[in-house]
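Sequence in, structure out. Go.
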Amino acid sequence: SFLRVHETRRAGWYIILGLCAGFGILSKYNYALWLVGLFAAGLSIKELRPALLDKRLLLSAGIALAIFLPNGLWMLEHRDLTLLNSSKFGLEQTTTWFQVTCKGVKNVVQSVCSFTIPLTLIYFLIFLKRPALECQATTIPVYRQLIFRAWTTIAAILVLLVIFAHATGFKERWFQPILVTLPIAAVSLVQQRLDAFRLKCLASLGILVMLAVAVVMPGRLLAAERLNREEPLTRPYAELAGDLRPNVPPGSLAVCN
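Output:
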């Protein structure tokens, strides 16, 4: 949506940009980091700067704020519940500054590598022996620059979080909204080597992975007991409820953690 805003400068795309920003933050709060990185990167690129300095961007910001506002107000009124999951950030208070920094940076690098290494190997094998083709000049390098500068901005923010907030609990899934553009950046790097055959290879591989995930994710629940794995959805809640029912007065509601 941001790229369409740059290309068309139509009010409709500013509305869509605001919707994407608002619902993106609701889906995962750290999506806001991607928005900050995208905005900072866009301002640093001359070709993209006019789209961000357009007054219609206030429309995008207003829509995003309106979508997030009910949730934001609830967070302000229930700060104890909002901060309940702050432990996920792994805030360290007892170790030294050097240890915290090393641990936080290590977790960030490990999480990023879990995303980048498999994709890098796949692209390396598919495009290794393919000679470059002649391509007409496009705006792809500008968009690639936008992605990499956004990542650089976010990396700087994460380092500051590690240093000043002592945050260390970075998980792979934490980077999903940030590295979702990784395949776009990857294919832009090999655009001069991309032909119909290799495009079919990428599409076929994507379909296979999609089907595999669709089978494996629910399948692990069915195989949890056989593999001696603990899955929340396979815990014996029905049996536990049966044991508790005789001890609960009729008409009562039992709320459990």
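Check: The mean pLDDT is 85. The radius of gyration is 23 Å.
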